[in-house]
Write a structure and sequence with these properties.
Layout (H helix, E strand, L loop, with lengths): L9 H5 L10 H12 L4 E7 L3 E8 L2 E8 L2
Antiparallel strand pairs: 1-2, 2-3
Amino acid sequence: MKRFKGYMDLCELLNLPDKDYASTPELFEELHDILKNRKNIHMLKYELGKWFGFSFEYNDETYFFSFDGR
């Protein structure tokens, strides 16, 4: 995932493999699985549906991620 219109690159921030996790529901689920298994990340919310989204806390900051799953 790359920086887009000023938004943060999650792969860069969290040192993840550089994939377009927002491109398919399967990759989005893969990203969720990676994050929920990291001890330094606290998942707050996770939704699948018309919009895919989640939020998490990392280094005392809260981050929000979503994309249109249509």
